[in-house]
Amino acid sequence: MPKNRKRPKTTTAAFSRRALKSSRSHRSHHSAAAVLPILSPLSSTIPKHQQHPRTTAQHLVEFFARYPRFEYNLEASVSAEFDRLVETYGWERDSKKGKKAWEGFSRAMGKQFSTFYGSRVDDINAWQALCVALNVNPVPQTIHECIAVIRSTHVNLVDFIDTRITGNPVQKFATQEELRTYTKETHKIFPRRSAEESGVLKYLLRKIFI
Question: What PANTHER family has UniProt attached to this entry (predicted)?
Answer without folding.
Answer: C3H1-TYPE DOMAIN-CONTAINING PROTEIN (PTHR38846:SF1)
